[in-house]
Amino acid sequence: LHHRYRGADPWDRFLSELAALPPDLSVLGINDYWFLDGYVRVRQEFDAGRLPNLEAVLPVLEIRCDNFGGTDGKLKRINLHFICDPTLPVEVIKTQLLASLRPTYRLREDDPYQEWSQAVSLESMESLGAKIKGEVPEAELARYGSDRQEGFNNICVPFDRAVEAVRRNSLLESRVILAVGKTEWASVKWNDQSIAIKKTLLNTADAVFTA
User: What is the value of pTM for the model shown?
Assistant: First the structure.
């Protein structure tokens, strides 16, 4: 849905680079933010035998949690990665995992019916973005992006809810690995207000990404 590859068909270059990976890189996780479209495309190529150098391609769903990391005015949300069993159909991941997250926001204090709560999709991102921009003074709207971009920028879910979506689902609990990024985790400082959060992030995850 968003990439930094140039050219008329960025997929050609990306798939060519996958096919040229050295032998020690034979298992790949296709990491998509909130969606699985990239994994679907690569998996189609893999299943068709056009990536013979790879042994397996795993779906990795990345989401933004409501925990903050970082200091000095550069706070960023902590991301959680779901590394899924490649035998899980994409539709199962969508219905059993992604659809269960349902971010929820109360965008207006004076109207209890203005609560926004939807499963994540392109349409729901646009809906959230439109509601956010609808509360912005007209003179400030030029500073904002499209409805989809603003919705994407704001969507996040509580860490506990994301973990429960896997751990309390008998279909997923043994077929999804939870991972956090080492750099993101390290950005949560050790201080008297964050020790418990920092330990919980690490001790809840099954794996930590390093580079």
Answer: 0.86
Tell how strand 115-117 and strand 104-106 pair up.
Answer: antiparallel
Tens-digit pLDDT profile for residues 65-87: 887 655 555 556 788 999 999 99
Contact 105, 118 (CB under 8 A): no
- Angstrom distance (rounded) from CA 95 to CA 194: 33
